[in-house]
Amino acid sequence: MNYPNHDPFEWIDHELAQLAERGLRRTLRTHDGPQGLRLNVAGRELINFGSNDYLGLAAEGRLCAAAARAVEQAGCGAGASPLVSGHSASHRRLEDRLAEFERTEAALVFSSGYAANVGTIPALAGRGDAIYADQNNHASMIDGCRLSRAEVHVYPHADCGTLERQLQTSSAYRRRLIVSESVFSMDGDLAPLAELVALAERFDCMLLVDEAHATGVFGHSGRGVSEALGVEHRIGIRMGTLSKALGCAGGFVCGSKSLVEWLINQARSYVFSTALPPAVCAAALVAIDLVRQEPQRRAGLLETAQGLRVGLREQGWNIGASESQIVPIIVGTADRAVRLSARLFEQGILVPAIRPPAVPADHSLLRISLNCGHTPAIVERLLAALAALRVEVADHKLKVPLGPDCDGCDRGI
Q1: Of 14, 49, 93, 324, which residue is most buried, by most CB within 10 angstroms?
Q2: What is the pLDDT of residues 119-160, one digit of tens each?
Q3: Which residues, at least 6 apart from 260, have a Cβ–Cβ distance to it below 8 Å?
Q4: How far is it, in rounded angstroms, from Cα 384 to Cα 55?
């Protein structure tokens, strides 16, 4: 029997067109040269407010030199998963240094921060268990919860009252786990860690805190929000990344020796992934030292962020409850965020538009990520560009639909 020719993948083009119509289609932006304060995109230099390189370490000479030496000594790749033959002396040194830095018994390095969360959460909770997750948690935590097959209870963002009621009415589970970021990656606000710790202790729950955007930035020694609030010793599982403020790649989990031993045996994203290249471990060791030795980087970063927030509020933008180096401008629709980001791009400023599924519907935003090297002059240039956009929006000269949720005036856009 002859069948008519049919392309089983023709649906892809249709779905991509649908994404484009809703302002949700994404394309890759390729840049030349190192990550830094400025990026060269298609031959054009842009001021970079779109990087997680918060401490300016991604292209720092001392990290690059350490990585180069490690490549000469150990080659480019790890060659295998850690449990086979990929766990080198470089990995051991990094894990020992991370445990010392974080003041925990042990630490375990994963191939990415995503892998750390998506492997650790299912290793701790499964069928017959319960997980309690903040509504605004990162996708890696959401996916980890889904893969766990535990019963997941989502509480409204930072709403410890609702979380308490959920815990009071769900005591029959085998194990219970609370999971939250410390600095929320899209809105830049902080979790109520003291309250979460108290609830975990009161209801005999495990608590996992994702410090990905806080490691190197918050706390006297740069260990994160848990250090800044004085509760780190009461949090059993702390996760962080090497790929943001530390300027490298990879993720890690720190805690007790028994926790790490359990993850080595049960975290599938660790067991079945090739280990990080030894050169990355060598660079990360230097980054940890610089976090300790150069606290002015994080102090200057947070001071710059505070100044930017003041300026944006004075202009009338809605920046939510940001308290960190991540400063959102919440604009509502995806189309609105894309158009505003494009106008900034035209002026040589890179501020990415963040749209669903990274944020909820009608919560699209411009995400400003600061670097400790952003000078007052650079920040003033950004503020001047945004001030001009505010005027254009208010005068209806910029073709950005405001919609019923925002009138472009006192409530901000």
Answers
A1: 324
A2: 999 999 999 999 999 999 999 999 999 999 999 999 999 999
A3: 105, 106, 107, 108, 253, 254
A4: 24
- Residue at token pair 């996708």: 139
Please list the alpha-helical segments (H only) found in 3-57.
10-21
The token duo for 302 is: 């947070």
Burial of residue 130 (number of CB atoms within 10 Å: 0-12, 13-18, 19+)? buried
The residue with tokens 């060659």 is 79
Q: Are strands 353-354 and 364-369 parallel, antiparallel or unpaired?
A: antiparallel
Q: Quick check: pTM over 0.85?
A: yes
Point out the residues that are catalytic.
52, 138, 181, 185, 210, 213, 244
Give residue-wise pLDDT tens across range 315-331: 999 999 999 999 999 99
Tens digits of per-residue pLDDT, 122-132? 999 999 999 99
Q: Report CA-CA distances (Å) from 134 to 30, 184, 246, 261, 376.
A: 33, 10, 26, 27, 35
Are 182 and 191 contacting, i.e. CB atoms less than 8 angstroms apart? yes
String of DSSP letters for 109-171: EESSHHHHHHHHHHHH--TT-EEEEETT--HHHHHHHHHHTSEEEEE-TT-HHHHHHHHHT--
- Residue 368's closest CA among 320, 296, 333, 314? 320
Strand partners, 110: 251
Residue whose entry in the numeric block shows the structure tokens 């002015």: 296
Do residues 103 and 256 touch, judged by C-beta distance below 8 A? no
* List of residues 6+ apart from 93 with CB closer than 8 A: 281, 285
- Cα distance between residue 105 and residue 188, in whole Å: 30
Residue listed under structure tokens 């975990």: 200
Residue whose tokens read 């492997």: 119
Beta bridge partners of 180: 209
Question: What is the distance between the alpha carbons of residues 132 and 176, in angstroms, rounded to a whole number?
Answer: 8
State how far the Cα of 139 lies from the Cα of 356, in Å rounded to an integer: 11
Q: Which of 336, 345, 357 is nearest to 385 (CA)?
A: 345
Angle at 381 between CA 377 and CA 382, to 5 degrees: 120
Is the omega angle on the peptide bond into residue 357 within 30 degrees of 0, that is, cis? yes
